[in-house]
Design goal:
heterodimer, A: about 220 residues, alpha+beta, Glutaredoxin, four-stranded mixed β-sheet, 9 helices, elongated, B: about 400 residues, alpha/beta, Aspartate Aminotransferase, domain 2, seven-stranded mixed β-sheet, 15 helices, 15 strands
Chain lengths: ~220, ~400
């Protein structure tokens, strides 16, 4: 049964490309379906897979073939667990791909092989904190609300949002960083994004990519 | 054994042996299930479809006449093949199973009658009697083999007493190739007033069978185990017995005439051959019989048994192997049924198949024997006219390799 379950998935995928495997996938599905219904699976598909595999192994290593034959049940369970483990990992990778643009941020991703995989653009390595200074009635700040939300959603990095036109405490914090903001932006203004780890800042309306790059470079 | 040159010529008649599978040669050791067909058989069958694809017996035109003549000729060939006294004693059936069922349905069994079988019957010669037992109250008696798996005549004499209407036995067992002592069995049965039917599916194609010398009452065979077409078989029956039997299937070609409320049946064999028949099959079957006769059944029997001897001796030298059936290979014809300790029989068969060596695995339709002996199944290598010593060597070498897994 366990072999049929794995065979169903593997042959199902191979069946996309070959009619031969489609037939086997159908047979495996029939076997799994019968087992679910508590009926005996009489196709002997698992036995055929096992014996054909052993026969092939025998050509290369009789010792390995014997070991496999004797422990086939255990081995098939191990492979099944590995199989489902890898399926889960693939699902996780696909999730990463959808959320972060890379199935394995910071390393090679089969779904996105052309992606730059340097350490610099790995959002997962970000440890620094970020502040967005804004004013309640500031139209540029309001335009940035969905942009910031998207960046936060895609990178997992959170901006502490401090209103400075009506909140003096926040304004005082803003003034603490005024030296760096003046340095980076040429004058004081909002919206302003400050990286606490590097004391670098960025002002005005920005795109998602600009904001992401800022995060990666200063996080 | 059949001399190499002749064997080579025989093998050249079987296209699949030279073609192989995916260009690789095949070793066909599943002859007890189904034999291969020589091109002569296929040619004769094609000839029917190409040259005279018409009805026999019914149509008066030229094509109908050609078919009628050839079917009659086929019947004559089969009568000669079995040593029947009259051509009319040959009834064409679909196979041995149908022939046995014909007898089980047509013989006038009454409550209290008994049928005797052996303990290694194919389901085809077991189920009809079990069914009859339930339906008509006919007693079914089984004669168990002795410790060496030979037929026990003493036990048989005890079983064949009063009330036994029919003794229905496998002539040569598909389980282990053992041939029952038919002549003695028939003699004893007749002394007790019982009729005898032999399931000859595994015998007529492998050894000389003469129904008159055997004095058997009914004899059944299948075409597909004797180089002939599948879906074609023969029931031989002594004419006076066939005359008394009621057909179990009725329809076209079984009656002289009919009114809205009655009919007059034809004589045997026509009254048993209802509906349009497998004409190409009967011609193919006859051609297969001619082919076998040309080689010679004694020669075939000897060839198979010598190959079996070669295989059995070496097989037993492989660690963990055991053979089912009598110890003496001479008693096991051309069948080697075996198991390897620690290995499943289906696994062994699939692994052999990976090397294009075709054997059968399982219980070979003799479930009753396997269940009684608590054996899950076995691997069966069954030999025939075209098998060679080289093939046997390759088979043994592969089995030895597989046995190391155990």
């Amino acid at each position: 049964m366990i072999l049929c379950l794995v065979a169903m998935v593997i042959f199902g995928v191979l069946g996309i490309f070959s009619a031969k495997y489609r037939e086997l996938a159908k047979e495996a599905f029939g076997c799994v379906f019968k087992t679910i219904q508590l009926k005996p699976c009489d196709t002997k598909l698992d036995q055929r897979i096992k014996s054909k595999l052993i026969a092939k192994l025998m050509k290369y290593s009789p010792w390995l073939a014997k070991l496999t034959y004797k422990n086939f049940y255990i081995l098939s369970w191990i492979f099944t667990l590995l199989f489902f483990g890898s399926m889960a990992y693939t699902a996780y990778s696909l999730y990463n791909l959808a959320v972060y643009g890379s199935c394995s941020p910071g390393s090679f991703c089969v779904f996105n092989p052309n992606a730059n995989i340097t350490e610099d653009n790995n959002v997962c390595n970000i440890t620094g904190k970020f502040i967005e200074f804004y004013g309640a009635e500031c139209p540029h700040c309001n335009k940035m609300i969905p942009v910031v939300a998207q960046v936060e959603n895609e990178t997992g990095v959170h901006f502490d949002k401090l209103e400075i036109w009506h909140n003096d405490t926040n304004k005082n914090i803003y003034l603490i960083y005024s030296e760096y903001i003046n340095r980076d932006c040429g004058s004081l203004g909002i919206p302003t994004f400050v990286a606490l780890k590097t004391n670098n800042s960025m002002c005005g309306e920005k795109t998602v990519d600009e904001l992401k790059t800022f995060i990666i470079q200063n996080g | 054994m059949i001399p190499d040159k002749e064997l080579e010529r025989i093998r050249s008649d079987f296209p699949i042996l030279s073609r192989g599978i995916n260009g690789k040669p095949l070793i066909y050791f599943d002859n007890a299930c189904m034999s291969l067909r020589p091109k002569q058989v296929m040619q004769v069958m094609n000839q029917y479809y190409e040259e005279y694809p018409a009805c026999a017996g019914r149509s008066i035109h030229k094509l109908g006449k050609a078919v009628t003549d050839r079917v009659a000729e086929a019947r004559k060939t089969m009568a000669k093949f079995l040593g029947a006294k009259r051509v009319e004693e040959i009834v064409f059936t679909r196979n041995t199973t149908e022939a046995i069922n014909l007898i089980s349905h047509s013989l006038d069994f009454k409550r209290g009658d008994a049928v005797v079988t052996s303990d290694r019957e194919h389901n085809s010669n077991l189920l009809p009697w079990q069914f009859l037992s339930k339906k008509a109250g006919v007693e079914h008696r089984v004669v168990y083999s002795n410790d060496n798996m030979e037929f026990d005549l003493e036990r048989f004499e005890e079983a064949v007493g009063k009330g036994v209407k029919l003794v229905s036995l496998v002539h040569t067992s598909n389980l282990d190739g053992y041939t029952l002592p038919a002549r003695e069995i028939i003699k004893i049965s007749h002394e007790h007033g019982s009729l005898v039917m032999l399931d000859g599916a595994q015998s007529a194609s492998h050894k000389q069978v003469d129904v008159r010398k055997l004095d058997v009452d009914f004899f059944a065979l299948s075409g597909h185990k004797m180089l002939g077409p599948s879906g074609m078989g023969v029931l031989y029956g002594r004419y006076e017995l066939l005359e008394k039997l009621e057909p179990f299937m009725l329809g076209g070609d079984t009656v002289q005439s009919s009114t809205y409320d009655s009919h007059v049946l034809l004589k045997p064999p026509e009254k048993f051959e209802a509906g349009l028949q497998n004409y190409a099959g009967s011609m193919g079957l006859a051609e297969a019989a001619r082919y076998i006769e040309k080689v010679g059944r004694e020669k075939i029997e000897k060839h198979e048994n010598e190959l079996n001897k070669f295989i059995s001796e070496r097989l037993l030298q492989i660690k963990g192997t055991s053979i089912i059936g009598p110890k003496q290979v001479e008693l096991r014809g051309g069948v080697v049924s075996f198991n390897i300790e620690g290995l499943n029989h289906h696994d062994v068969a699939i692994m052999l198949d990976e090397s294009n060596i075709m054997v059968r695995s399982g219980q070979h339709c003799v479930h009753s024997w396997f269940n009684a002996h608590n054996i899950p199944g076995c691997v069966r290598a069954s030999l025939y006219i075209y098998n060679t010593k080289e093939e046997a060597e390759k088979f043994l070498s592969k089995v030895a390799e597989i046995a190391k897994l155990g």
